[in-house]
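Q: What structure does this chain adopt?
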Amino acid sequence: MNAKANRNELVEVAQGKRPADMFIKGGTVINVYSGEFLQQNIALYKDCIAYVGQNEVKINENTTVIDANGLYVSPGFIETHAHPWVIYNPISITAKVLPLGTTTTVNDNLFFYLHLGHSGFKRLLGELKNLPGNFFWLIRLVSQAKYPGERDWFNKEDIMDLLSSEEVLGTAEVTRWPLIYKGDPVLLDIIDAAKKMGKIADGHNAGCSYEKLNSIAASGISACHEAITAEEALDRLRLGLWTVLRNSSLRPDLSKIIKLITDGQVSTGRILMTTDGPHPTFIEKEGFVDGLVRQAVEYGVPVIEAIQMVTINAATYLKQDDYIGGLAPGKKADILLLPDLVQFRPDIVISNGRIVAENGELTTQMPDFDWNMHFPENTFPFSRGILENPDLYLYPHTSSNDFVPVIHFVSNVITERKNMMLPAKDGYVDLSAQEGLMYAALIDRKGEWVTKGILERFALNLDGMASTFNTTTDLLTIGRKPEAMAKAASRVHELGGGIVIVDDNEIILEIPLQLTGMMTSDPSFDSAVEFNDKLLKVLQARGFPFHDILYTLLFLTCDFLPGLRLNPFGLYDVKSDRILFPSTSMTNFLNKMKA
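A:
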């Protein structure tokens, strides 16, 4: 991590030979190294801390002096596991969380890489360096759903080149963790190479038993955020994994797993916390990393330990503790002035030596960013006309005496297989009299294939919707009326990505998501909140029974969570690792239309 201040300058400021650029006096410094609260002054020069102690330092007419009497002076908060693509984008999420005290985020690159590839993502990485705060990346080694050509796209040469970038701190979570458990040679080779480069290897091991976690730890994985009970968290901690306690919109688990600390009395030196990509409304209501600290303290974690988990612990895990994570001479000047140790909402946020927010409002200028320079205008390189045929969305079925495998939603993201006897009409499943069942079709964004299924307990009276917001970013369509599904899909095609809902042949909701099909290009975080709220409200009014629609859409097309899924290869049973109904060629469908 490069600094603008050189060491000689910092020494001179510490010795009173050179005036400080900023002087914070009279505050209670939260020392995360010693675990103490100390009445001290802090002198900054350029983007670094030069002095921490009780002395006055040299100042002049250009020095910004901040009277911190009555305030707590904390290191900036660090989010080690961010997903900057949940309707919001890197610009809007940074503008939102900086005033909340998160001065460092470490971000997953999945959807940027899926659409831009190695060279395109590398250009984007370079431009996003201009964001205020510290904006780092973790690099995916595979997608969240296997697809033809995946290994070529995620090839070792390109990944290793990205890992050599200073802004990249390591490899991102492998959600398909059985690949690692089974010893995939390419993945293990890259993880080993990354570790030798001094980088981390983030993990995702949902449902992984203690015995299997031994293999995960042996593979070189550094951390896991997927514990949902205190016992699972303790398993990870005992095996040497950095143990990340999560509280997110999909999994608000902190009240359960925090008992690892409050009841278990374990050492917190290797424990972190994460929000793990919450939807926009969750951040609006609960905060970001500040919310994690606030809740941890409410549940009984000592204040100093709660702050350490999102500062020095996080920096040490990231191998960046020489630069961030604490208030000491030579460290980057990422500093929060907190009015209390209850809400943990800063009055002033300082990042890289500059005041970037005051009283919850951003005071620094966000860089102008032209997304059009990075993302192609033609998201779907095939004619919209094919999407207008209702037969594209129907599930083939020739006999009412045969079972149809149905995707039944058990929870927001967990599904199970239900074999159902369904009526057939003209060679397709007929859902016209089947309440609560929906057609679903995942259509390749390149126009090469389509995967079909039947859903239960997704909604009751949804005529049609289409969404590129899913883990493949292909076109996911759902509904009880193929004509409405066709209209929604056609409109998303026109938008170049997004979410559209059709009712009685009328478009009732339209959310443009031109950035990879996952993000709005709007720099306003408020727009992302509005989109999320409207989508959830509209779908809940039509029988969607859960709390987080974005993650339901996201994970319906993955291949690592229990139940049936729609992926590029077909209707997939995760438990048996078997394709129940293969995807079909769009070319075959076109030929059928012409015949």
